[in-house]
Amino acid sequence: YKDSESIVDASNRLILRDLSNPAALHLPEGDIREGIEGCIGNTPLIKIKSLSEATGCEILAKAEFLNGAGNSPKDRVALNIIKVAEEEGLLTPHSGDMIYEGTVGSTGISLAAICRARGYLAHICMPNDQATEKSDLLLKLGAEVERVRPAPIVDQNQFVNMARNRAAEHTSDPNRPGRGIFADQFETEANWEAHFNGTGPEIFRQTAGSLDAFVIGAGTGGTISGVARFLKPRLPELKVVLADPPGSGLYNKVKFGVMFDPKEREGTRRRHQVDTVVEGIGINRLTNNFEVGRALIDDAVRVTDDQAIAMARWLVEKDGIFIGSSSAVNCVAATKIAQQLGPGHRVVTILCDSGARHLSKFWARARPIGGEDELSLADILD
Ligand code: PMP
C-alpha cells in the first residue's frame, strides 16, 4: 500500500485511493487557480434529475452559485467591471481606490470579495428589505454597507441613485484619498459582456450546442442579454424565455411591449414588490442591460412566490439542491417551458445563489422538509 492512502467515505467505509495513478483522481493536470479570480467561471451544468424525470425533458441548471469569489453569477460581472475600469485607467490595483455600487446583494458580495483580492475598498448601498444574510456577509468581507429604503421606492435615496451620488461626492471631495468609481451594473456594457464572453459560450460548449430553451429571470438583465446574444445567432431555433416574479413589469414588456408606468402605478408597484420574497430579479424600468437583449427574448412566464417556495422545497427533498429565491423562480419557469415543449427537449436555466443567503426571508416561508404533505409538481406549477 505504499502508493495509496486510506480515506473514509461518506458511509464511514475505509477505501484505498491509488496515488500512483493521478489520472484516477479525476482532476485535470495542473489545475491550480490563480487566486480567487481564478475560481470564477467554468461552473458545472447540473442535470436536475427529479425535474428531468417528471417532464421527460433534460432540465439542466448552470450552477453559478459555485463561482468561487462571491458565489453567484455576479462574480463574472464584478470582475469584468473592475478589469474594464483598470484598462480605462479609472482604477489602480492595490491603491485603496473605492468602488461604489447599488445592489440587492449578490453584486456587492462579489465586488467586496474581489476588491479585497485586488486592493480596493467597496462601498455598497443595499435596500433594507433584502435578507440580512447578505448585508452581514458584506460587513464580514470588510465592505462599507449603507442600508437604504426598499428597492421599489425610486427617488434620489434609492439604492442605485444613492451609490451613484456617493461616488460623485467622493470624486468631488479634494480631501478624500484615492479615487471613487460607480460600478453601475444596471447600465454598464461590462455586465452583459461578462455573460456574452463567459456564461453563454460555456453553455454552448457544455451542451455541445444542443438545447431548445434558455429560461431565466432578469434583475439588471445582464445574464439574459449576454447569454441570448451569444446563443441566438448560433442556435436560431432556441427559445429564450424570461421568468418574472410578482410586481415586475418585465413580463408585460416582453408579452405586450408595455411597461408599468412608475408614476401611475406607484402604490400597486410598491405593494407588489415589497410583498414578494424573491430577491434579485424583477424590475419596473428598462435597464440598458435588459434593452441590449430584449429583442432576443421570445416569451415570458410569471412565477408566484408560493410556486418558487414550493419548488425550492421540492429541489431539497428530491435532489438535495439548496437554492435561493431567484433560482427557484428560474426552475419553476424552466419546468413549465419543458412541459410546453414536450418530452425529449432540453432546457437550460441558472442556479444563481445558495439558499443559505435566504434563510431569514425566502426560506422562512417554506414548510419543513420531509413533512407529511407530499409535494406534487402539478401543485407547484399551477
Ligand atoms: N439572482 C440573484 C440572486 C441576483 O442578485 C440577480 C441580480 N441582481 C439576479 C438573479 C439577476 O441577474 P441579472 O442582474 O443578470 O439579470
From TrEMBL:
Membrane as UniProt keyword: yes
Listed EC numbers: 2.5.1.47
Keyword entries, A-Z: Membrane, Mitochondrion, Mitochondrion outer membrane, Pyridoxal phosphate, Transferase, Transmembrane, Transmembrane helix
Keyword Transmembrane helix: yes
Record Gene3D superfamilies: 3.40.50.1100
PROSITE patterns referenced in this protein's UniProt entry, alphabetically: CYS_SYNTHASE
Domain Tryptophan synthase beta chain-like PALP: 37-353
Source superkingdom: Eukaryota
GO molecular function, one term: cysteine synthase activity
Alphabetized Pfam families for the sequence: PALP (PF00291)
InterPro entries: Cys_Synth/Cystath_Beta-Synth (IPR050214), P-phosphate_BS (IPR001216), TrpB-like_PALP (IPR001926), TrpB-like_PALP_sf (IPR036052)
Gene Ontology terms describing biological process: cysteine biosynthetic process from serine
Recorded catalytic activity of this chain's protein: O-acetyl-L-serine + hydrogen sulfide = L-cysteine + acetate
Cofactor dependence: pyridoxal 5'-phosphate
A single GO cellular-component term on record: mitochondrial outer membrane
Subcellular locations according to the entry: Mitochondrion outer membrane
Main localization of the protein described in the UniProt heading: mitochondrion
Protein family per UniProt: Belongs to the cysteine synthase/cystathionine beta-synthase family.
Protein name per its UniProtKB record: Cysteine synthase 2
Protein species of origin: Mytilinidion resinicola
